[in-house]
């Protein structure tokens, strides 16, 4: 049976997150740790199936970064869901670069969004154990959101959160076809509206252009949606 670690120094928040997990999946074993030292000692003893992690632990502002480094050193590939008060606009990219699977900003999500994100990661982690990653496509893109791996573009890693990976996968699966806003709503966890989808697509383009300034594979289809035009 899967064992989950909740690493959060604020005990009421830790109890809330652990309670949400237990209510959603009573069969899971949940361990709670409240500081870096006890968390790292536990990680040395046991390989967790998923870690929910705060960045700030006590007076250590970036203790969570050290914990992720420990996870990557001891148990590379362990899924990490970061839940932090740190601004998502700044820290989501940092956490993705450290191979965290997703990032939720405190006060910006409710129980339903946390549980949905948590279960998405848990299911993908379980599926990954018996799967192989997707090979690169003919146009140089390697993408498999099931594995939660950062996609690569011509051998270079693209830094994208899970929702953006799913939007990208949907566009690539229907290459050459217009993908409507309504179809893209199906892969967006929250904020199912056109403005939010446009922001995700803009973030995808920016991530590609950081590697390839000439990238132009995602076309706007006015009033309808978007189209992947390569391949």
UniProtKB/TrEMBL annotation:
Alphabetized, the UniProt keywords read: DNA-binding, Phosphoprotein, Transcription, Transcription regulation, Two-component regulatory system
Keyword Protease appears in the UniProt entry: no
Q: Which SUPFAM superfamilies does this chain map to?
A: C-terminal effector domain of the bipartite response regulators, CheY-like
**4-aspartylphosphate PTM sites in chain numbering:** 54
Q: Which segments constitute the Response regulatory domain?
A: 3-121
| GO MF terms held by the record | DNA binding
The record's InterPro entries line, in alphabetical order, gives: CheY-like_superfamily, OmpR/PhoB-type_DNA-bd, Sig_transdc_resp-reg_C-effctor, Sig_transdc_resp-reg_receiver, WalR-like, WH-like_DNA-bd_sf
For the keyword Phosphoprotein, the answer is yes
Name by which UniProt lists this protein: DNA-binding response regulator
């Amino acid at each position: 049976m899967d064992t989950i670690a909740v690493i959060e120094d604020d005990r009421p928040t830790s109890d809330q997150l652990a309670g949400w997990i237990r209510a959603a999946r009573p069969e899971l074993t949940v361990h709670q740790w409240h500081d870096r030292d006890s968390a790292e000692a536990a990680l040395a003893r046991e390989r967790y199936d998923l870690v929910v992690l705060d960045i700030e632990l006590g007076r250590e502002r970036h203790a969570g970064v050290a914990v992720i480094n420990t996870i990557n050193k001891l148990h590379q590939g362990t899924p990490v869901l970061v839940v932090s008060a740190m601004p998502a606009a700044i820290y989501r990219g940092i956490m993705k670069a450290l191979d965290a699977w997703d990032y939720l900003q405190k006060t910006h999500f409710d129980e339903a969004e946390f549980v949905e994100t948590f279960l998405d990661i848990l299911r993908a982690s379980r599926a990954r154990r018996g799967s192989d990653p997707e090979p690169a496509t003919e146009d140089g893109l390697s993408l498999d959101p099931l594995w939660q791996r950062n996609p690569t573009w011509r051998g270079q890693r693209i830094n994208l959160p899970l929702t953006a990976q799913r939007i990208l996968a949907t566009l690539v699966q229907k290459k050459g076809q217009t993908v409507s806003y309504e179809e893209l709503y199906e892969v967006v966890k929250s904020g199912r509206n056109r403005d939010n989808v446009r922001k995700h697509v803009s973030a995808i383009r920016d991530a590609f252009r950081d590697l390839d300034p000439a990238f132009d594979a995602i076309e706007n289809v006015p009033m309808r949606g978007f189209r992947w035009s390569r391949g």
